[in-house]
């Protein structure tokens, strides 16, 4: 594990979304169904690891979110890993936040995730048929998915903090959010995947990823 970056802001890895011809079918699906993220008085998502495997050290837990947590000129990142699960194509999308509180206190780092379930054989044209969102203590599951939560092919998520605690959550929203540069697990250099193992709650790690699919099944 490498934990040398004391700042929250590190350079995001090259976004393969810009070269569609180089993508495998599963990676194209990850791009097509990438969720939107609406922020509500929260820290912004950041890149968690660079091409050399160095991971972000997060932000001082005593700092308010207005201090150095409003986004980085170096780029934001969304990470994705996909697999078939009971004949449904599932992609876990993960965001890294360098602070887990809207005020003083709380952990320095936080991972949030959304599982987007896309219909497989027999469904016709691929579409979002389910969504599982990480909440403060559990998950929020949607199946079938309310059309009001879909913008094009993207499920709309909102990231919020509980004002009275240090806990954060994702919820479905009808409001348009933003996108981050996407990189899939397979596109990450091996050294970057190894670096991400330094985060105990990183959703795409071997073992954790499979467990999330099993426990997050919304049907």
From TrEMBL:
Location of this chain's protein in the cell: Secreted
GO cellular component, one term: extracellular region
Domain of life: Eukaryota
Keyword Secreted annotated: yes
Main subcellular localisation: secreted
Secretion signal span: 1-21
Keyword Signal: yes
Alphabetic keyword roster: Secreted, Signal, Virulence
Alphabetized InterPro entries for the sequence: NPP1
Family: Belongs to the Necrosis inducing protein (NPP1) family.
Listed PANTHER family: DOMAIN PROTEIN, PUTATIVE (AFU_ORTHOLOGUE AFUA_5G00600)-RELATED
Protein's UniProt name: Necrosis inducing-like protein NPP1 type
Species of provenance: Phytophthora sojae (strain P6497) (Soybean stem and root rot agent)
Lineage of the organism: Eukaryota, Sar, Stramenopiles, Oomycota, Peronosporomycetes
